[in-house]
Specification:
The chain is an alpha/beta fold. The chain folds into two domains: 22-262, Alpha-Beta Barrel (TIM Barrel), CATH 3.20.20; 263-364, Lyase, Ornithine Decarboxylase, Chain A, domain 1 (Beta Barrel), CATH 2.40.37. It has helices at residues 3-9, 23-36, 52-61, 70-78, 95-103, 114-123, 152-164, 183-202, 229-243, 258-261, 357-360; strands at 18-21, 40-45, 64-67, 86-88, 108-111, 128-132, 140-142, 168-173, 178-180, 209-211, 251-254, 265-277, 280-285, 304-306, 316-322, 331-339, 346-349. Helix 6 links the parallel strand 5 and strand 6 (128-132). Helix 2 crosses helix 3 (52-61), helix 7 (152-164) packs across helix 8 (183-202) and helix 8 (183-202) runs parallel beside helix 9 (229-243). It is globular. The relative contact order is 0.15. It binds pyridoxal-5'-phosphate.
Length: 393
């Protein structure tokens, strides 16, 4: 029960759809992360919720930031964050972005391919780099494996290449998958990273940077209980002590996104339409897959209830929940059992602080495609800048 959130959501003047975020909750969660990883540094993964107020709040608390794009970098800088407190764990980066990160003193950036190394060496000579490892994602609701990451031998090879290109390889990162319900994933990934560190030491590399990525779960979409950050922190700290060589300068990094902000928010939506179709009753809401509830499409069933407790005594019905758009994909969830819903009722979606409004905008700070009209009779040819020509090589 969050009294502050409940009071805000019950304000009858609050227009829907609305995403209400409790900043006291974020403060508390930030402190829990700091305690759970005693010698670690929190680098909030801005992609989960890049609202400037959220970014500024976490910056004031002392958080570092994990960024993926020029827009996310700018948000961190606008919040007064020093470059040294920013890292980039996006393995594929625009040259312009790489150069800008170097200019503003971003601490380090990830790589997981020779092409990317060559790009980083050209646009950010001498930069610190860390390698993204491919690790088991099976314990997570939203696996991120496949798109990024390399095996141990390739990781060491990339470090050798980085050194030959004048870069400074400093360590490794991994991501166990989002909403990871298996703390063993972190333990196994740390053991795998330790093996890379051992092999890299044999090649003369002196690592100090161990980045555990994101994946810390929030909310109760699938199971009545989830591992807490304290559970994960205890397992992680024990694994580090067991598998990694003791060193005073170890820079331990966590990049929570969902785990930092997920439970801080609730999304309020109004039902503005209802229809009987076959044996199903459809409810049409003013929030949907394309405006706030994209993750219901990615394996996160909504945890939803009536705003008005008085409605809870009504008879139970089974509904299909749909968003407002005309797209047939805009179906939030099927077979949702709720006390009878009437047009005008307000529904609350819980644990909606992460990956809600982000997906409705330019996700991860990457711009939506520019609108370029070629009107009848227009002769002008538009030639874009080749990305490799943006910065002199
Ligand atoms: C590199 C990186 N770090 C951190 C995160 C945050 O993950 P989560 O929200 O599961 O904590 C992501 C999410 O995609 C990511 O790609």
């Amino acid at each position: 029960m969050n009294i502050r959130l409940n009071a805000a959501l019950n304000d009858p003047t609050l227009e829907t759809p609305a995403l209400v975020i409790d900043f006291e909750h974020i403060t508390c969660t930030y402190a829990r992360f700091e305690r759970a990883f005693p010698s670690g540094y929190v680098y909030y993964a801005m992609k989960a919720n890049a609202n400037p107020v959220v970014v500024q709040h976490l910056a004031r608390l002392g958080s570092g930031f994990e960024i993926a794009s020029m827009a996310e970098l700018q948000l961190a800088l606008d919040a007064g964050v020093d470059g040294k407190r920013i890292i980039c764990s996006n393995p594929i980066k625009h040259p312009h972005f790489i150069a800008r990160m170097q200019d503003v003193g971003v601490y380090a950036m990830v790589v997981d391919s020779t092409f990317e190394l060559e790009k980083v060496a050209r646009y950010a000579p001498g930069a610190r780099v860390y390698v993204r490892l491919a690790v088991d994602n099976t314990g997570s609701v939203l696996p991120l494996a496949g798109k990024f990451g390399v095996d141990a031998a390739t990781a060491v090879d990339l470090c050798d290449q980085a050194r030959a290109l004048g870069l400074e390889p400093i360590g490794t990162m991994f991501h166990v998958g989002s909403q990871c319900l298996a703390p063993a994933n972190w333990v196994n990934a740390i053991r795998a990273a330790a093996e890379v560190w051992r092999m890299a030491a044999e090649h003369g590399h002196n690592f100090h940077f161990l980045d555990l990525g994101g994946g810390y779960p929030a909310g109760h979409y699938h199971t009545p209980s989830i591992p807490t950050v304290e559970d994960i922190g205890a397992d992680v700290m024990a694994a580090i002590a067991t598998y990694l060589p003791q060193r005073d300068d170890l820079m331990l990094v966590v990049e929570p996104g969902r785990g930092m902000v997920g439970e801080s928010g609730r999304l309020l939506s109004a039902v503005f339409g209802k229809a009987e179709r076959g044996d199903q009753t459809w409810l049409y809401l003013d929030a949907g897959v394309f405006n706030g509830l994209m993750e219901t499409y990615e394996g996160f069933p909504p945890v939803v209830s009536h705003l008005d407790d008085a409605a809870l005594v009504r008879p139970l019905r089974t509904y299909t929940l749909a968003g407002p758009s005309c797209d047939s994909c805009d179906v939030i969830a099927r077979d949702v059992v709720l006390p009878e819903v009437q047009i005008g009722d307000r529904l609350v979606f819980f644990d909606a602080g992460a990956y809600t409004n982000e997906y409705a905008a330019a996700f991860n700070g990457f711009p939506i495609p520019a609108f370029v009209p070629l009107l009848p009779g227009e002769q002008e040819t538009r030639v874009g800048e080749a990305i490799y020509d943006l910065v002199p090589g």
